[in-house]
Write a structure and sequence with these properties.
The protein contains 10 helices and 12 strands. The protein has about 290 residues and is an alpha/beta fold. The structure holds zinc ion (ZN). This is Glucokinase.
Length: about 290
């Protein structure tokens, strides 16, 4: 493992994923070091990994988890994807005990959103919706320049808006969520081959079924973001995540759904995220620096 370089006063941000864990070191708002490692087999091992990354110069740690957390206690509540049993795990206290620095534990999509809001595609905007297209579909809401959190760090889950009540089962227990159509596995399932980037390539080469699968993904996302805009109000949506490379192929259907609701929600800009795969780790570092 490569240990981070940096000077005293830097902030460590870690984005724990189902397979990979990304980290960044922020000096001010600048990334001075970053890396990616395989996600360890369980939460205890993950805490040891992060503690090793932190020593000895960081002043705070932010950890993004792909699920719901209790920010007040730093406890993982519903984190189904990374290896091991995370639910109920006191990540914040454990990591703080190992490192001696303040730790913030946050949802990964909210971390992505904070980074894109303060430093990325939504810089200068205050009322914004976010969607993160990956294996899952995460989301977040910013109002008046603040990312909404809620009691389980679960506000803004646009990926779990129902678009087909009779659709495929979703990991959340519901059926026909946006995630079942616009997440990577859903796109691959609908097309019958993968990965999602290959479906996008097929669509660009003129494969009509691939075009249709991605249009349906955009349609589902547009319904969710349009409904979210009806609930919260927003000037823009920012779309990122590994599958968002196909945003151009989803964009027309997405914009059509937003446009259908124009009388209600006004004109909404669709902006690609700009910070890339490190956005979640950058946002986690920013939250860590806020010390809760
Ligand atoms: Zn769902």
């Amino acid at each position: 493992m490569t240990r981070p370089t940096g000077r005293a006063g830097t902030r460590l941000g870690v984005d724990v994923g189902g397979t990979d864990t990304k980290w960044v070191l922020l000096d001010g708002d600048t990334v001075v070091d970053s890396g990616t490692v395989a996600t360890p087999p369980g939460p205890d091992e993950t805490m040891k990994l992060v503690a090793a990354l932190a020593a000895p110069h960081v002043e705070s740690i932010g950890m993004g988890l792909p699920g719901h957390v209790d920010r007040d206690t730093g406890t993982a509540l519903f984190v189904p994807n990374p290896p091991g049993d995370w639910d109920g795990y006191p990540a914040g206290p454990r990591l703080s005990a190992l490192t001696g620095v303040p730790v913030a534990v946050v949802n990964d999509a909210r971390a992505f959103a904070l980074a894109e809001l303060l430093l990325g595609a939504a810089r200068g905007l205050s009322d914004v919706l976010f969607a993160v297209l990956g294996t899952g579909v995460g989301g977040a809401v910013a109002l008046r320049g603040e990312i909404l959190v809620g009691p389980r760090d679960n506000v803004g889950e646009v990926g779990h808006v129902t678009v087909d009540p009779w659709g495929s089962p979703c990991c959340c227990g519901n059926r026909g969520c946006v995630e079942t159509l616009a997440g990577g596995p859903g796109i691959v399932r609908a097309f019958g081959a993968g990965p999602a980037s290959a479906v996008a390539a097929a669509a660009r080469a003129g494969d009509e079924r691939a075009v249709s699968v991605l249009a349906k993904a955009g349609w589902a996302l547009g319904i969710a973001l349009g409904d979210a805009a009806s609930l919260f109000g927003a000037r823009a949506v920012v779309v990122g995540g590994g599958v968002s490379g196909a945003l151009d192929l989803m964009g027309a259907a997405l914009r059509e759904e937003l446009g259908r609701r124009r009388a209600l929600i006004g004109d909404i800009a669709v902006l690609p995220a700009v910070l890339g795969p490190r956005a979640g780790a950058i946002g986690a570092a920013l939250y860590g620096g806020r010390s809760g």
